[in-house]
Amino acid sequence: MEPSETERGQSREWRRDRRVNVGPAERKASVVGGAALAVSGLRCISKRDYASGLAMMIAGGMLLYRGQTGHCGIYDAMGVDTVHTHNSALTITKAVTIGLPPQEVYEFWRNLENLPRFMRHLESVQVTGARTSHWKAVGPGGISAEWDAEMMEDTPGQQISWHSVGEADVPNKGSVEFKEAPGHRGTEVKVTIDYYPPGGGAGKVAAKLAQGINAQQLEEDLKRLKQILEVGEETTARRTVE
Amino acid sequence: MRAVCWHGKHDVRVDEVADPQIVSMGDVIVKVALTCICGSDLHLYNGYVPTMKKGDIMGHEFVGEIIEVGSGVKRFHVGDRVIVPFPISCGVCWYCKHELWSLCDNSNPNSWMLEHLYGDTGGGIFGYSHMYGGFSGGQAEYVRVPFADVGLEKIPDGIPYEQVVLLTDIFPTGYQAADNCNINPGDTVAVWGCGPVGLMAMMSARHLGAERVIGIDRFPDRLQMAHSQCRAEVLNYEEVDVAEALQNMTGGRGPDSCIDAVGLEAVGTGIEGIYDSVKQTLRLENDRASALRQLTKACRKGGTLSIVGVYSGFIDKFPMGAIFAKGLTLHAGQAHVHKYLPHLVKLVAEQQLNPSSIITHRLPLEQAPGAYKTFLNKQDSCIKIVLNPQESARTARPGIEEAGAV
């Protein structure tokens, strides 16, 4: 995705202090942990366990450096920054063309309780009011999350958008556009989901690692939506019912 | 039921597996009468196609009788004898509606695998790896066939299974290869590879009006079959310089169309052949392209390259300059079997063409492991093997296992 103007501005601003990408609490922990590791490493070496001792001293040294300077090479390589965490959503956008008129695709989506039929990570969506709903999701390793959502835009045959409200496990917002595809090809469905990972730094690392999987998950979700709407059910290669 | 299962490179076994069931409402269960080993099965057998898993049922060429129908099936009934096309097609997506059946958008549940590799995906294929959907194949007693109303073709009464079993894949594949050449009166069509698909392409090119058909291979029995069954002139590429011979045979013009029925395991000659083998073995190049290079060089200006041999990855030293300078047109891809089936069934029923004349081996399914070896090593003048899952191993004629043991 092209970085927006504000993102470009931000990165220019970051360049001035780009070496600092570890937050203050983590820096303190790094200094203490690093010093402890280095001392343990020295003890190992004095007991002639050179390999472990050396490894511990190197790791301890790296942590000390990280705490002293506030810069972490690993975070750098992963694109993680725990100083500038505010306001940094993870955004996924995927599109698919479905051979039905926009109004029909919109109507299927507008019935939010249909979403778990093609979105693998959703266990259920319960409509709780005219514009409100309750969502339950299951992540890798059985991690579950719940939140209430409120619909923001609802333009029949064109667009639906929503955002989580209150104390959401994973604060998020999403929008889906329905646009008539050229040459009677049906509807171009474009979905954008932003989510704000929980737990500050740690959550950010986990979410960053999961981002690739989730973009693919959304892509597969949209393929399933296409199968359900065009064919009538999800395609399966299973040979037996169980 | 008994089924031919993939267990690794050069390791297929006949295993006892669970019978298939109706899973979706558009399914039928076919009791397989005859099933073939395809040249492209050898790519799986040789380990060139990724995403195969131990226990996967092989085979995408099969005909048989419907023994069970799903609640949504309208055109077929229990007892119907049917031809099953090797590509699986939903019948409702944009590609199916535009007769691009093998490019179906909805029939491959693992479409993301190929999307990452190729940018987009084709449809599902029976018994052809998980990136083509992970569907159980036809080298088995029974098969679950999805989208039955879309894909299947009834076999006319009185036509034996053997006469139509090649309509599941190689006859339509060869026919499409020739059809893509847009053959005009007076045209010469050269076909690289005189294996089953090459022979079908030559037979089809003749049928579609080619003045001359030239078959290129290195196995004398295959060249002989091209000559006798397809009225082709033949060239042995180990004996002559193919490009020069073709030039001399066509008054210096080159063939109007060139068909590649070889694909990614082409056997090159000389330095070039060694170069490709080494690179492929070291996985620096996954497809060997020596046939494709010859096609490009030999083809006349403004001519057509029609590629039906399977390619799966990257090739090296591809003569893009020749394609550009000579203004060549390139056609490629899996056959849109559904598009051709009704016409081809008619051609066979009216005895205008007899594709099954290239079948050389008829064996019970139980002998599949030996049959794969025989086919791979082109022993015993083997060109096309048909397996019968209903015939017990005991009544089979002996000989193949000895031949296959080499």
Please provide a written account of the structure:
The complex is a heterodimer of chains A (242) and B (406). Chain A has helices at 5-16, 24-46, 50-69, 73-78, 102-110, 115-118, 200-230; strands at residues 90-98, 122-127, 132-138, 144-155, 159-165, 172-180, 187-195. Chain A is α+β, with helices and mostly antiparallel strands. Chain A has 2 domains: 20-78, no CATH class; 90-230, Alpha-D-Glucose-1,6-Bisphosphate, Chain A, domain 4. The model of chain A is unreliable at 1-18 (pLDDT under 50). Chain B is globular and about 60 Å long. The chains are: A alpha+beta (242), B alpha/beta (406). The A-B interface holds A 97, 99, 185-186, 216, 219-220, 223, 226-227, 230-241 and B 18-25, 57, 72, 90, 92-94, 97, 105-112, 115, 124, 133-136, 144, 146.
Q: What is the CATH architecture term of the largest domain in chain B?
A: Alpha-Beta Complex
Number of helices of chain A: 7
CATH fold category name of the largest domain in chain A: Alpha-D-Glucose-1,6-Bisphosphate, Chain A, domain 4
Q: Percent range for helical residues of chain A? A: 40-55%
**Spatial extent as radius of gyration of chain B:** 20 Å
Round the Cα radius of gyration of chain A to an integer and report it: 24 Å
Give the uncertain stretches of chain B in residue-range form. 393-406
**Intertermini distance of chain B:** 29 Å
Provide mean pLDDT of chain A, rounded.
78
Oligomer: heterodimer
Strand content of chain A: 15-25%
Helix content of chain B: 25-40%
What composes the largest sheet of chain A?
A: 7 strands, antiparallel
Mean model confidence by pLDDT of chain B: 91
Question: What do we call the CATH homologous superfamily of the largest domain in chain B?
Answer: Medium-chain alcohol dehydrogenases, catalytic domain
CATH topology of the largest domain in chain B: Quinone Oxidoreductase, Chain A, domain 1
Number of strands of chain B: 15
Number of domains of chain A: 2
Give the overall shape of chain B, derived from the CA principal axes. Answer: globular
Most residues in contact, chain pair and counts: A-B, 22 and 31 residues
